[in-house]
Specification:
Layout lengths: L4 E10 L4 E9 L4 E8 L10 E7 L2 E6 L4 E6 L4 E8 L6 E7 L4 E6 L3 E6 L5 E6 L6 E4 L3 E6 L4 E6 L5 E5 L7 E7 L5 E6 L8 E6 L3 E3 L3
Antiparallel strand pairs: 1-2, 2-3, 4-5, 5-6, 6-7, 8-9, 9-10, 10-11, 12-13, 13-14, 14-15, 15-19, 16-17, 17-18
Length: 216
């Protein structure tokens, strides 16, 4: 049986046992499978609440809750690099992703903006102002997906010129949206609450390119 989509929907960590558990959903055309995988290594222990992380080459970029700084760690030695990127203007970072093509970090600020940071010279700019509060981000080589928690919204932007390409049309039963990714065959996979049979059901769904394309 071939599984064509995999989403990590839960990560649980225990510092007492040095165990990290990943919970995956693998979706097939006719069925689904839940797989739990455990590892026995904790990369590092930090003294603040870590919001999100992302990696490029051998460097991990760490964003803390309610801090406007990005800290860098070496993924080979698991040690801090003593490099801090201070982004003046961010109040509540929600997510961070990195593009391997343009070597840019995209940082979501909950208060209606996305910032772009160069991993080479660490310069930064307020790249985009949004109409919704940004919850999470995801990247392809040319597109940035911006997910809003409430109201549930997914917007697709061009990473080349910041153009808003489309707004993904969600089923009416989706009451809360957590995350969205764009697949290689042009569909969207979303993590959400709400199904047609049960409005309180947690679910992962695939949408087949239903977008409101903006006219210019």
């Amino acid at each position: 049986m071939r599984y064509n989509t995999a989403s990590c929907i839960s990560i649980q960590a225990s510092l007492k046992t040095n165990t990290v558990t990943f919970l995956f959903i693998c979706r097939h055309k006719y069925s689904s499978l839940v797989v739990s995988y455990s590892a026995v290594y904790v990369l590092c222990v930090v003294g603040r609440e870590v919001r999100v992380v992302t990696c490029l080459d051998n460097i991990m970029y760490v964003v803390y809750a309610k801090f406007c700084t990005i800290l860098l760690y070496n993924t080979d030695t698991l040690s801090p690099l003593h490099v801090v990127i201070n982004i003046k203007g961010i109040k509540e970072p929600r997510d961070i992703v990195v593009c391997r093509h343009d070597r840019q970090l995209y940082v979501a600020n909950f208060e209606y903006s996305i910032w772009r940071v160069s991993v080479d010279d660490r310069s930064y700019v307020k790249w985009l102002t949004t109409q919704v509060k940004v919850w999470t981000l995801s990247l392809t080589s040319q597109h940035l997906l911006v997910t809003s928690h409430r109201p549930p919204t997914v917007c697709q932007y061009s990473t080349t010129n910041k153009e808003l390409l489309c707004v993904v049309q969600l089923p009416q039963y989706v009451s809360r949206l957590y995350h969205a990714v764009e697949t290689t065959h042009g569909t969207f996979v979303i993590s959400h609450i709400g199904m047609s049979q049960d409005e309180r059901q947690f679910a992962v769904s695939e949408l087949f390119r239903f977008c409101h394309v903006l006219q210019h």
